[in-house]
UniProtKB/TrEMBL annotation:
Domain Peptidase M14 as annotated: residue spans: 6-300
Family in the record: Belongs to the peptidase M14 family.
Residues forming the catalytic site: 266 (proton donor/acceptor)
Organism, scientific name: Macrosiphum euphorbiae (potato aphid)
Primary localization class, coarse: secreted
One of the record's GO molecular function terms: zinc ion binding
Any one annotated GO CC term: extracellular space
Known cofactor(s): Zn(2+)
Protein name: Peptidase M14 domain-containing protein
Function, as annotated: Involved in the digestion of the blood meal.
Compartments it resides in: Secreted
Amino acid sequence: NLTFERYHKVDDIYKYIDHLSQEYPDIVEIETIGKSHENVPLRVIRIKLDQNSTDTKAIWIDGGIHAREWIAVSSVLYLINELVYNRDSLELHMKNIEFHIIPILNPDGYKHSHEKERLWRKNRSKPSANSCVGADLNRNWDYHWGETGASKYSCAEIYRGVKASSERETQAVVKYIMKNPNKFKGFLTFHSYGQYILYPWGYAKRVPSDHTEVHRVGQVMATAIKKATSNEYTVGNSATLLYPAAGASDDWAKGVAKIKYSYTVELKDTGKYGFILPPTEILSTGKEAYAAVSALANEISSEK
Ligand code: 0X9
Ligand code: ZN
């Protein structure tokens, strides 16, 4: 079992999810969807609690696309842990949804952040001999790739990669979701920090035509978080609320995979500790992530 008193390394995380799939093969399934640049398997854990329900609505959830945002990884693990160990007491809408969860999308970067440079953000690929290491996996997606807020310079923190979808980590998710894009009704990517629930578009200060509903559901998630821990999360268009940044996964999910409810959740805090959030915050932030997911699942399962 996993403690929520500290942050975990990649090996421990994989041991934990392996254990879950062995102990609970009826509800937990693991699929390796690709490999990172350094050949670490990228694993999706699928959880569907009610195997008898014919409802095939799915929600995609990922954490750890940015190496230093450890709280995103621990919060997704908390969610997994709740789904499995608290399954009997969960609300019905949590049982009917199929969750496709990748707790750590950038294992190489995460490892580097643990062992070498705490504030590392990118992955660990190296496009050529004289270039810097790492592409920003949240600038690498094939939707308005390379536009505002992404850099063509490999040394930049927001390096977009040599081309759209150049990175293995991006490719693995694209391939997996595009096998069956229609079943995904929600897409949540967990980041830190700032306490925001952001929705497309992120490439420019524009909103999609269905933004009224997308905003409303974002607000429902923020209200659920507030109820859980009394923390405030601000809901809004990501380019307007934060800054324009093209080639991020949320825009791809909405623009290409056509997943209506696509959000980037920036977890705690609002700047006191920033990326170096103390482990004492793991449990309460996990509860916030859980509250957001549950609220989204409820909205999605009640929609037509
Ligand atoms: O800049 C990012 O990639 C995200 N913020 S972070 O501090 N975690 O790096 C925000 C991404 C918001 N979404 C889009 N711009 N599409
Ligand atoms: Zn991030």
